Amino acid sequence: MNTWQVVYSEQAELDLRCIYEYIAFTLLVPKVAGKQTRRIMDGVAKLNQLPLRYQLYKKEPWRSKGLRVLPIDNYLVFYLPVESQKTAAVIRIMCGGRNIEEQLNRTEVDVDNEKVLD
Questions:
Q1: Which domain holds residue 67?
Q2: What are the φ and ψ backbone dihedral angles of 85, each rounded to 5 degrees?
Q3: Which CATH number does the domain housing residue 67 bear?
Q4: pLDDT in tens, 39-82
Q5: How many domains does the chain contain in total?
Q6: Average pLDDT of the chain, as a whole number
Q7: What is the pLDDT of residue 23?
Q8: CA atoms within 13 A on the CB side of 6
């Protein structure tokens, strides 16, 4: 079975850091913060095998771009499989309770020019 490379965009790395900081410093449970971010990273790492198994995001224009959603606990990992490069590019990680549309609309992704992979 061919394995894919999994990469994080700068925004996805920031999202993960913000999740950790919110749980650790606002909710004051740093052990939980570490465990939660580890579960997210472990789930994302599994995208190296069969990254197309998760559903396409239902709304446009994201569906047409091939955006997929990996649910992990109360969080959603949004990623783009780039088949030509055998790469799963994680573009956002956010709590499922957030305004997903607003957050995605503020996300800059240019798959054709592979900006997400820079």
A1: 5-107
A2: -110, 0
A3: 3.30.2310.20
A4: 999 999 999 999 999 999 999 999 999 999 999 999 999 999 99
A5: 1
A6: 91
A7: 97
A8: 19
- pTM here is 0.90
How far apart CA 85 and CA 116 sit, in angstroms, is 12
In DSSP notation, the chain reads -PPPEEEE-HHHHHHHHHHHHIIIIIS--HHHHHHHHHHHHHHHHGGGS-GGGSPBPSSTTHHHHT-EEEEETTEEEEEEEEGGGTEEEEEEEEETTS-HHHHHHT----TTTTGGG-
* Contact between 64 and 58 (Cβ < 8 Å): no
Packing angle, helices 10-21 and 30-45, rounded to 10: 150
Phi, psi of 93 (to 5 degrees): -135, 120
- Rounded to a whole number, what is the distance in angstroms from the first to the last CA of the chain? 26
- Residue 118 belongs to some domain of the structure: no
pLDDT given for residue 42 in this prediction = 98
